[in-house]
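#struct-help
A.M.: can someone run this one for me? Single chain, 446 residues.
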Amino acid sequence: MPFTKLGLSGALLRAVADQGYTVPTPIQARAIPAVLAGGDLLAGAQTGTGKTAGFVLPILQQLSTRPSPHANGARKPLRVLIVTPTRELCAQVEASVRTYGKHLKVTSTAVFGGVGLGPQASQLRRGVDILVATPGRLLDHQRQRNVDLSRVEILVLDEADRMLDMGFLPDIKRILAMLPRGRQNLLFSATFSDEIKALADKLLDQPQTIEVAPRNSTVDAIAQRVHPVSRDQKSRLLAWLIGHHDWRQVLVFTRTKHGADKVVRSLQADGIGAVALHGNKSQGQRTKALAEFKRGSVEVLVATDIAARGIDIDQLPHVVNYDLPNVPHDYVHRIGRTGRAGADGEAISLMCVDEHAFLRDIERLIKREIRREVIPGFEPDPNEVPQKIFAQRGRGQGQRQHQGAGRGNAGGHAQNGRGRNGSDKRPSPKHGQKRGNGHAGWVAGR
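D.P.: on it. Structure tokens below:
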């Protein structure tokens, strides 16, 4: 079914065509008519399925064809509120609003932490039709009376599962209490956990439910494999893989912010361009790192789970789990960064003896065994003893202990615990030696 059959206006179809799209993705084909019908929606879709356009396009259609019932006030009423868990996703969703609404007289803005309140407050006071916001910064503006939520007609909770993981449920409840009754509610989530179902039961009124992929499934186009390796050889193996295969764009995941910085320093010492993306970076640093990675100025982006949430990179070929996640769902989110829009993708995990339990949990979730492959020269030490590492989930989620490592966070108002990342010590390469393709990892390369 082409976009022309979905009930969108000519202005929206032109914007879609400008982006080179003619046929909607499965989530778009089902979500657009559902949103246009005006009822509540519970939608389950993995990352990279085109879900943002699935709600942005019908929302723009409704705003452009239905005048606001509150348009006579001194300030333009806020008609649509879209809440996202991270700064990067917030900016990307608002960019999609501007992209698809460029032929319409619809205004929008994004508000998130890491930057000053002043310019955001000025824009909000002038009034916008659509506001995309992270929970904490939205509440900051509400407390300063920069934004009026009492006339919102449509609410979108995007990546609601991640918001709950990050401990944003209390903030979400405060936001919901400020909104008018009778609005349309759209809840998008990569997974339908019990917590998401509980939230949906309270928020949604007789919703239509859409799930475009089997629950907790991984993308078929993604080739997955695990490289067992000793704890202190992970950094050498990562450098060797990049050099040996001549990878030019690699997204690497670590559990902690400290671990991400450590991997970046190790790769840079091997002559590999790498930058980190996590919550200890300023918003300017995060934006710069992502931009450098997207345009190919650096080959490797090393990120924590929450910082990478919502990153949209076309045809990203390689994702590496430097640390296996202690939360199995995070593995699905991580590898979903690659294999998008029908493109092939590769997800590689470096597993030390501490992480065997994590792999078992992941395989149980995705209902398949991931192929193990030991790289000659990087065989794991059979005498290495597993270390216990403490893991703490997001704010309000409590603390638990697991064999493995704790994961870091990417800012916002989440306060995830930090865990040890093992001992990644190795000999430093001699001065002037660059990335290579020998097992030593430091032979002169390109």
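A.M.: thanks! Residues 3-211 form a domain with the Rossmann fold fold (CATH 3.40.50.300).
D.P.: also worth noting: The radius of gyration is 22 Å.
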